[in-house]
Specification:
heterodimer; A: 156 residues; alpha/beta; 8 strands; 21% strand; B: alpha/beta; two-stranded antiparallel ribbon; elongated
Amino acid sequence: MSRFNKGKKEMPELNTSSLPDLIFSVLFFFMMVTSMREVTLLVKIDRPTGTQLEKLARKSCTSYIYIGRPATDQLRSQWGNQTRIQINDAFATDATEVYDFVMSDRNKLAEIDKPFYTVSVKADHETPMGYITDVKQQLRKGYALKMVYSANKPTN
Amino acid sequence: MPGLNTSSTADISFMLLIFFLVTTSMDTDQGLARTLPKPPEDEDQKNELKVKERNILNIRINKDNYLMIGDDYVGLDEVKPRAKEFIANPENRANLPELKPKKCGILGTRMVTLNHVISVQTDRGTSYGVYFQVQDQLVAAYNELRDELAKQEFGYKYEFLSKEQKEAIRDVYPQKISEAEPKQYGKNM
């Protein structure tokens, strides 16, 4: 009989030696699917919704231009409530800065990537078209002829 | 020699994970891709004027976001059917673009509206949202026509076709939306 009750067995401790591996795989997953945040948005952008959208093919060859009204009260008191064009981390004084931005940004790319250079325009849906056409004219002037009107998928 | 104590590796990798969660974003950028025309030179502008009137579909949006196709005021939901009719011109009507023979890859020679152009003109005060909706509807018109033709010829929707078949369909319905030169009507910004 003694073989059956050798005193109370202790609950063995949970083996956590594979926990780091688990976390690492989650980490790698996130490193794959996300991308570094490029800029802090200074403008409020509510993009238009569209049904016929395509995904952007090459993220590395893309520059972003943001158009909208200043996002925070602090920015509004400094810059007013007019629509602004944001390039990199600052407001552009006028649309001609887009030209310089496009020229310098394209030059950072490798020579084989230059034909794929695309400019993604992220604009608020209430923006007057005047700003958009100004930007488009500057893009044409800089021969950055591929552009994308950035938009949201409709949620339903 | 005792084994290396790895009990803190989990904490370290947690820190890394949290760092990446904070600094990265998962935005998938989507949108309507467009190719802009080259900057205007004198000769190019002359060529543009040569397009016949029946081959142009003029869509105008004014500063109060009212839409006009040709000479009619229309709503947003009318854009797609009007554009489809214009692009395909199935009954070969005289006020719609002329049909011309064109070699379309594996589909052989077909009558297509070779020279049609859709031009969207806006005022400086038009809101971008409306302009975008119109552009979206125009792309939808092209996509529906391509889907219809693909089903009729190959029995599948356009997106499931092979590269060759897609090319042939694109030859029949090439996307020709002009990014027209801006015009300044009213100076309301």
